[in-house]
Amino acid sequence: MTDDGLLPAVGRFEGTREEALRLDADDPLAYLRERFVHADPDLLYLDGNSLGRLPVATADFVADLVREGWGRGLIRSWADWIEWSRRLGDRLAAHVLGAGPGEVALSDSTTVNLYKLASAALDLKPHRRTLVIDADDFPTDRYVTQGLARQRGLTLRTVASDIDRGLDPDRLRAALDGDTALLVLSHVAYRSGALADMAAVNTMAREAGALVLWDLSHSAGAVPVRLAEDGADLAVGCTYKYLNGGPGAPAFLYVREALQRRLRQPIQGWFGQRDQFGMGPDFEPVESLDRFLTGTPPMLSTAPLIPALDLVEEAGVDRLRAKGRALGQLAAGLTDRWLVPLGFRLASPEDPDRRGSHLTLRHPDAWRICRALAEDFGVVCDYREPDRLRIGPSAAYTRFIDVWDALDRTRRLVAEGAHTRLPHEKARIT
To answer: What b/e string do you get for 222-236 counting C-beta neighbours within 10 Å, with b at 16 or more?
Structure first.
């Protein structure tokens, strides 16, 4: 069966466990599962959109870096390490983000990169006084833009969006005008998985004379991203979700080549200096994307991304996307059959082409259901306010049978009322 054949097969799915096993047998990416660590073989892990699994090759790669690169090589190892931000950025550009060489770099966290690029973009349009965001966007994106608007005395215009279906293009177009300097928007909505039309948004922003800064955290490695083809200006994103770079893995930033020399980032560090080891008295930014680097990069948290990217490149994002759509449709179909009668409803776009690789289910008791699944039924997904159960299968290592079993355990849990033993109070999940 071809990659594209998985989705029609799911469409003909009648709900049996044997059908899920047959889908796994026909899955061209099934071999990748053994390339990841499954420390608890009975655990059904459907939270790859929060933290990806550990690739098998990562532990030895990092251990060798520690023993040989740090332990034996010491400062001599910097000759190789110092290029990692650029080299890994180029790999992300070519295989994940649809960008050109020298347009992507690893640096800092998503939040810090968002601040750097948003601040630089606002400086480029000093006579425009409005910043536009999605009212339901990921919290850090909203917090950063709120801070910038307050510091600069700008108007922060929030566009109301449907938390299940995403941002309405007509409503967004109406929010952009001649005073708009920058639009900040997620490619895939963190709560519902709604997928924005990047090319259309870039076009409408450009017509208004505004720049767009994309957050790709929930799309990188899961859905095809074509930054150059879709006319993107700026983007940021993390590497620990579908890219499996591990907790603490550095984020990436993208700046279209034509914009790089025009933007001056606000956190002027020595890694962005023209003559870095000249140790000059004043900051003179390098002409390339490196001007957006700051201080010494975290090599131990960067290293895991190298073997992780090997797997993403081997699989190919188009094939990962094809399987991710099929996994999502299986979950949506089983929800309709099994969970809707138990009080659930789909809280994501119904069309698989309109969402990323995660989907969300609404239930008034979603918090307790999420906790009970993890504590007593061996299913790890996550909860999002106000009453959403978010399911994030990762195409690289999630099987169709994993989705079937997870939804089966969910229906048994709710039918039995096993979640009702838990308190209603929400405690922080650590």
So the answer is: bbebebbebbbbbbb
Between these two residues, 190 and 5, which has the higher pLDDT value? 190
Q: Is the dihedral of CA 426, 376, 190, 238 positive or negative?
A: positive
Q: For residue range 331-379, what is the model confidence (pLDDT) as tens digits?
A: 999 999 999 999 999 999 999 999 999 999 999 999 999 999 999 999 9
Q: Among all residues, which ones are annotated catalytic? A: 138, 215, 240-241, 390
Work out the angle between the directed axes of helices 110-124 and 139-152 (0-180°, nearest 10): 40
Whole-number Å distance between alpha carbons of 104 and 232: 12
Please give the model's pTM, rounded to 2 decimal places: 0.95
The sign one gets for the Cα dihedral 419, 41, 381, 195 is negative
Strand-by-strand arrangement of the 345-346 sheet: 345-346, 359-362, 388-391, 382-384
Residue 429 confidence (pLDDT) above 50: no
| Distance in angstroms (rounded) separating the CA atoms of residues 89 and 290 | 11
Q: Are 290 and 268 in contact (CB under 8 A)?
A: no
* pLDDT value, residue 101: 98
Task: Name the one residue in this structure whose structure tokens are 């007593």.
Answer: 376
Partnered with residue 156 across adjacent β-strands are 131
Q: Please list the alpha-helical segments (H only) found in 4-105.
A: 6-11, 17-25, 56-64, 78-81, 84-92
Report the distance separating Cα 389 and Cα 368, nearest Å.
10
